[in-house]
Amino acid sequence: MTFTYSVDSTDEAAWHAARSTTDDGQIVVTASEVAALASGGTSTWANLRAEKAGGKSRWGGNEYTEWGHEREPVIAGAVHALYPQLLANTRLVISDDDPRWRATPDMIGETGDMLCQIKTVLWAGEKWVAFDVPKRYYDQCQWEMLVTGATINLLAVEYYDRLEDGVFVPTFLFEDPHIIPIERDDARIAEIIAIAEQFVGMGEPDTLDLYLADYARADAREKAAKAEKEAARKLIAKEIAERPGGKYVSDLGSVTQGQDTTKTVTVLNEARLKEKAPKTWERYVEEQTKTTKGRLTITPAKDKEAA
User: Fold this and answer.
1) Phi then psi dihedrals of residue 8, to 5 deg
2) Which H or E run includes 154?
């Protein structure tokens, strides 16, 4: 099997377009997508199909993916020192056997028979071995081998710790990345090809599905932004508490930490009034007519296993 180099991921718009459909409009499936389809349920399939139809990507990344992007060139350099034939890659590659199948391997061997997939992983106290590599990473590696014809894909893992203040640091700073050789598994490749074929055979999504996918993307961005804002707020609160006077002003804004206060307020306890003096309560109760506009409820789908 041979493959053809396509657009570079540095041209983000062209790269996303080439990951969506072929030049003649056929649905494309990439390595990360087939891994998601193989492990996801009905909402994963529906969301991805709507994204393909709408030409947009739901995932915008977060602090963890940013850390991975930051570390990838460093890890690639360490892998290249161990395997000089492996070169860093940022280009989409297309299978010459089926142009619908595409991938962007992190590193490609000069002879094309070896690949490398780079991952940064939160340290959980134990390094992975071949049999406990997460299924989604295994399938991603297998798809890349399908597209390129490679016979081995090195999973290069760098573990990291996330400190209390949100800073990321490599767990093993002066060690080479943990490398797990993933050998080509033609039986599994056949299974994920069948999954990909089933996905591209799905019908066109309803217009409302396209809008729901847009809503889900916005919802995910909103939640990520809210979490980021809250994390920044906690750091600001911790820092200002240690500053004399509880006030700070700069070109970026200002922070003021007021003093805690306690005061007594008077409120009408309607429930108690109705219980103890029902006649008085009835004298001051008025009937009013008002129209309440029907509420639009939008609930992004939760994943359910496909039947």
Assistant:
1) -90, 145
2) strand 152-162
